[in-house]
Amino acid sequence: MQGVIEIPAGERGVIRVFDLDMVPEQARFLREPGALAQVLGIDEINLDHVEIFPVSDLEELGLAGYLTQGCGIPEADVAPDLEALKNLSGHVLLLRSRAFDGAATRLTPASQISLLASYGEQQITWSAPPQASPASSKLYTGPKLSPRAARHASRRIGAALFAVVMSAIVFTLYVLVF
Description:
By secondary structure, the chain is α+β, with helices and mostly antiparallel strands. It folds into two domains: 5-120, no CATH class; 146-177. Helix content is 34%, strand content 18%. It has six helices and six strands; from the N terminus they run ββααβαααβββα. It has helices spanning 24-29, 35-40, 62-70, 75-78, 82-86, 147-177; strands at 5-7, 14-20, 50-54, 91-96, 105-107, 113-120. The strands form two sheets. The chain has a four-stranded antiparallel sheet. It has a two-stranded antiparallel ribbon with strand order 1-5. It is elongated.
């Protein structure tokens, strides 16, 4: 069957660019729930990972610039399709792999929707060397006071607090009397 696009299960980090050969009203209608899934020949699609917009909205950045700067696709990947992307007019559809929620999918797009290119996003390496934790970050590693020293420290704090409160009371009484 001509025009069938196979999406493997668990696919990640792929952006497919489609040219929408339709009037603006039809392209805007594709944002409605169920409409895009219907024209792609599938049951459902996650619209959070779909972009439909007119290329003219990108102004001087252009679609190639949006793909490289906005979507993180390497310029070397976009370079072979640069001329086709510059000549685009009307609406485009950007479809990310996450739109299929990891399920294997078979797209049979309507005649007005044509696949221009598929690009892989740059994968980010989230690994880092393990960090050695300092001894001070571990529980109960600080110096322990003996029970006698702890009692002595709490008595000093209590005596200081008592002295401050009593001084405040004496000062208040002095101001009221004189």
